[in-house]
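Researcher: Please predict.
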Amino acid sequence: MSQVLEGSVQRWSAWAWGCRALILLGPQVALWSTGFAGQRPAPWLAVLVLGTCLVWAVLPESVLGVVTLGLAITWWGVGLREGLSWWALVATAGLVAAHLGAVCASYGPPELAPDSALLRHWAWRALVLLSPAVAVFVVLAAIGRRPPPNGLWLLGLATTCVVTTGALVAYSLVRQAPKATVARHDVRK
């Protein structure tokens, strides 16, 4: 098994290595950014996340990605009690980068580098995923430590759904817009 794994890793393209680096580093950034926000992760959790990241980087299509992202997200919810920190946005970017790396790494064999259209497609989706996080952060920062008004969380959820859906619909409309065609001349005439 190790020879098979070693042989496949040696054939990875630079693109595959880059995707695997995102998978490996994204959850680490998310986990360790809590240290800058006031609460470092427990050593056992750091080792567990690192181990799941390593396996996920080799097997980007596995369910271990959900476990890895879930561990980092849970640590933010359980371990950090100091309130709102802008490091949450850094953690979100790390998690989205890891997800993006895994999705792009799962396209075709590791020796294949995807075309630039696919990269633009997923970069746009990553920005769409990050935009609600920024909007929620701004709203929470504006509220501060005051108790939120009734229904604010429902309004936040509805706004996030509308913005995300609207952005994805707009993107799909742009992608489906007819492109200018070049007239082909039949050379046989």
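Model: The radius of gyration is 21 Å.
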